[in-house]
Amino acid sequence: MTDLLLLVVTGLGLxxxxxLAASGLSLIYGLMGVLNFAHGAFMMAGSYAGWxxxxxxxxxxxxxxxxxxxxxxxxIVVGALVGFLVEVVLIRPxxxxxxxxxxxxxxxxxxxxxxxxxxxxxxxxxxxxPEWMSQTTELFGARVPNDRFVFILVAVALFLGLxxxxxxxxxxxxxxxxxxxxxxxxxxxINVRRTFTIVFSIGGAAAGLAGLLYSQYSGTVSPAQGGSLxxxxxxxxxIGGMGSLPGTAVAAVAVGLVQQLANYYAASGVGDxxxxxxxxxxxxxxxxxxxxxxx
Length: 295
Prior knowledge:
This protein is mainly α. The protein is built from 13 helices and four strands. Helix content is 78%, strand content 4%.
């Protein structure tokens, strides 16, 4: 029973990371119809910005937790800035050209990895971790790593924040109205293009946050990290329904739990296979899950 509880909580923590990675992807696709394969580059930018902040920008005498807090803010800002620039320079001229969107974002993803390797090298860089997050807390007899609680709390806060933004604010109303009937909204004098830029920036900010927290999970920063996390983000988005934020949250939890349970009760590495099988099962039972992505 103790082992099962530990697996469930750690699985929820892993699912929280997947939701953080997939939320921006789901938001951008659901509201703008852009299948952003460069999302991994956004996460990588956030992780490296956080690493540079913690190891070079701030003094080593400063508490690691305080440096991490500053690094989180920097990662969010950098992710938002990268998202803003990508939308304005590359995506905006291609809103009606989906194939070109895919080619451009895939190219940007490959170029960003090559650029990171050229600047910082291909070897992983160690990232400082607050002592409390490295420790464990006893929960009904199970020793649960404290960082899993942090990931879960941040994911829940992001989920509630995005829902509140979309359903309780004027900006959210404009976003949803612009998706439904852009021409009518523009006729009312509202700049939908600027609103979509804001959405892309929010997605980039979420990706930057996800990249840094995933680096805390793994303990290192590397150029390929964003790409590996992007794979799970896409799986979560497809399973949850393209563009559905609540569906993405449920799918992220399911993927995290399946992966952890399979790795423990079957064999190490089987968890990844189980996630792929779960994706295949969803596509067999609900083929419409990929229709939006291929439209």
